[in-house]
Amino acid sequence: MKKLNKFLFRSLIVFVVLFSISFSIGAGIIYSFYRQLPYISLESYEQSVNSKIFDENGKLILELFKDENRTRKVGLNEISPYVVQALISIEDKRFYQHYGIDIKRIIKSFIVDVQHGSLIQGGSTITQLLARNAFLNLEKRISRKIKEILLAFKLEKQFTKDEILVLFLNEVSFGEGTYGIESAANVYFRKHAKDLDIAEAALLAGVINATTAYNPLRNYERSINRRNIVLREMYKDGKISEENYNTAINSEPELKGRKNSTSIAPYFIYSTLLPRLSQKYGQNTVNTGGLKVYTTINSEIQKIAEEEFEKYEIFQEYPDLNGGMLVIEAKTGKILAVVGGKGFSQSDQFNRAYNAVRQPGSLMKPLVYLTAFDNGIPPNRIFSDVPREYFDPWTQTIWQPQNYEGRYHGPVILRVALANSYNIIAIELLKEVGPKNVIANSKALGIQSNLRGTLSLALGAYSVTPFELAQAYSVFANNGVKVNLYDTLKVEDQNGMELDKNNYNAKKVFSADSICILNNVLEEVVNLGSGTRAKIKGYNIAGKTGTTDDFTNAWFCGYTPNLVVMSYLGYDMPKEIGQHASGGRITAPLVKNVMERILKKFPERFPSEQFKQSENVVNIKICRESGLIASEDCQFTIDTYFHKGTEPKMICNFHDPNIDSFDDIVDTEEFDMFFKKDNNINTMFNKDKKVFNKKIEEKTDLEKLKNELNFFE
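and the corresponding structure tokens:
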């Protein structure tokens, strides 16, 4: 007996020692796991939230997410009470009684698993699920389970039960890439979480257990069966009445599904805006940081531009043809619409409106003429439009530029030459004002691309982007004031703190006098010149066509005192569009379609108004043929602006019915004074005096002279 007692005593000591050792080791392991738990608090815990992009009026145009579509965090008062009731009934009935883990549920689930020989009964509480989803990974290891239990205790200590519920409902996945109850309510029902009814709440609560198996958009019948189980549990728990239960269980959900991820202005958003934001704030912040990006895009104007671009008939004739368009509010610099091409796809995200580098053709001519007007050359100055040869220092060859369709027009006043886009006169004018001055003015207007000081500069031989040209032409519309174009109003973080904001930047870069003269001439482009297909009844439209000599690019920019629409059409791999595919023929009608809809839809923002007349210019009605003050005999006249002091002083007598021949003009003292002293006629004859002298010597009558030299063309 003594031996037995001694044995038992020794065994007890060994057991106590082993137990102490095991307990110490176990406690050490648990303490080690506890030390690895993350620090948690309401202040430090940040859930990922979708970033959102808005238009200029605060209308949501795109919601971003990477892997987790989480619309926004919501408080308990922003969640339907039926959601909370359904969640507790199906997932954690003793949620308000336990302290992180439910011992009774763990024992019950263990017995069920043993009976079925597999893990079919879950024992995790809502607190454990929160610990797993928000702070731990989903690996199936004992160490992770121990951490989950320890973290559940920590969460219960750190947060109230309601705070745990809110954190969980904002964190948990509901399938379809949605995370959080607000996102799920929006994707499945186009509702806010607070507006979910009993049946909808039960369906979403049922999805949590197995997001793929119970996804109502993919496994409708299984999701409805699961929803009905949730409803029965709610009824058994006394959360809903029998009447509500019967109504809900017999209802059919009106499922919506995810909206198409392609938004309006896709070329702008995916090719320009998002890369810029990612570079500044990081890709992860852009996708999941809850940024609020307020753009200048106007959804209605963007829709107009996209619709007109997509349905434009030229694309039916030339399916591979593409292009770009920008709609600008000149006074503010806002970019209201961006069309980066047609048929946006993931394989084509090149924003042609911003980044296409193309030869602008005659769209560069107004910059040459503006330089001339700003240097005192009047718009009635006469240049001779005849074939010429020029030496090209870059290629060391003779250059023989031609007018469109090879036609020439003899002596022509500048405003007519610009309105009809005559090439030779643009080159001659560039020679007079100097390429360096034109390049300097181009930079001031906003063109940053490299321009060379050659004569081909006048014909738009050096490539620029539509964005640069839109910036330049917006200065014309805005009376010489350059407002930097911008597409983003401000950026806020998910808490509403302002991270970035556009600062209005306006600078006077040209005198209103010179711009006034130019606008007056560019109105003639639309009214009588190469851009007549852009004319809109009841509105004063100025503009300019542009066509490259090989018909690879066709441009048109139309503008009012506040609205600018810039567009080009061309192949991505440059090739001829087609003979006679000029900017005036194929691009001007497209711009007209867009402008007309915008002007009529927004009459208060873009009213029908005249371009301003500057105080230091005078308006003179002149003869379009001679450039002199119009007489009663002049058939073609036009109101023209001049810098004070540069306006013509003589009245035109070229159409006097009493003059029957050119000799009658030549022999008069008035003509002699006119020829020698008036800059207009002096310039007209300066380069081609020999031609005219020969005609005078031959005493050719006026009518023949007109026909041969297109004197009045």
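(Above: one complete record from the training split.) The mean pLDDT is 83.
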